[in-house]
């Protein structure tokens, strides 16, 4: 079996057949850098990382490009609110993004493209759209894409213009994001207004700045070519962002844009959409403050397929934290010798992931492997480390933990309290050990301490 993926363009699973034999061009919609990302944002990047890792594991050469949106409506509002320059704000949050990326063990993209470095490419693309008759200049100097000139508009989100309210607010505006039922011409270039402050570029199109959608088209095609293999993002990007990317790119070049569009589903929190007002909004830092290893979040995401809507709870992530600790302990217990990869299990692992990245089955296979008494510890270790090239749990970096003397002393006191059946003291000592960042687990062979 070879890789089969769900393509949003066709709404079907399709065999993956790259444009250029074993070379894959992969573009991921990256962060808009005006704040810390929440855990729903990170689902998109962990999914893209799993995809990239598996493509490489399967023998493909992958060129991965991810954009950094560093000029956009929300960014300009935040620049004014914080009284900072565009560069000050976006560079700070770009570095924060990279720090969190590394904590989640996400492999760096080959190229990160900042929108502000591609203004000239955007201008050239917009000029071509005007020349081809797909774009026009409005009275205020802004440039819009005429969706009625594109006969294929709607092919990604699978709707027809005739079924929608067209320009429902009865006027053109320059908003990048809008509801699906409000189909309208979208801004390619936004003429400067006083609200933009000092965020503008003087170009052949006039004084202004690019629209959000044109940014990704210019950056992806500049680095991957006018046609490339895979475009990833969250389902919230399907309309209008990715729909508009396809329209403007294909109308400018006359060529297909991305062959496959792959989208991860929404992440709910406590059964609701994440919102600060609902008290269910979490960043990666919030999880770390609760003592949760970022890799445990990665593991938890694998318990459902990337294309399935899933519900995050603190109870669930704590369960994955425990599972990660168990996994690391099991790998440590295998010893230092590394044998040979078990090919039968490797074939099953690939069979699962070939089916649209079926991570739940791949993860279950890891536990089956650890319980299989017919395989030597050395071969188990070789096989699980091989799988981890895809899963990204950093199992090759596990070392026997050195437990601080203070924690060891508290553990001894607790053992004594348990022997004396002083359960109140025992519980209090456990809490103290937990507060120092360690977990204590009672087993038949005694207490085991591990870092939380």
**Global morphology:** globular
Parts with pLDDT < 50 across at least 5 consecutive residues: none
The biggest sheet, with number of strands, parallel, antiparallel or mixed sense and barrel status, is: 5 strands, parallel
* Tally of individual domains: 3
Distance N to C terminus: 39 Å
Please give the count of helices: 14
Q: What's the architecture of the largest domain in CATH terms?
A: 3-Layer(aba) Sandwich
- Helical residue percent? 40-55%
Which CATH class of the largest domain? Alpha Beta
- What oligomeric arrangement do these chains adopt? single chain
Tell me, rounded to a whole number, the average pLDDT. 93
Instruction: From the 3D structure, determine the CATH topology of the largest domain.
Output: Rossmann fold
CATH superfamily (homologous) name of the largest domain: HUPs
Please explain how this structure is put together.
With 452 residues, this protein is α/β, with parallel strands linked by helices. It has three domains: 16-264, HUPs (Rossmann fold, 3-Layer(aba) Sandwich), CATH 3.40.50.620; 268-397, no CATH class; 405-451. 42% of the residues lie in helices and 18% in strands. α6 links the parallel β13 and β14 (258-264). α13 runs antiparallel to α14.
List keywords for this structure.
452 residues, alpha/beta, Rossmann fold, five-stranded parallel β-sheet, 14 helices, five-stranded antiparallel β-sheet
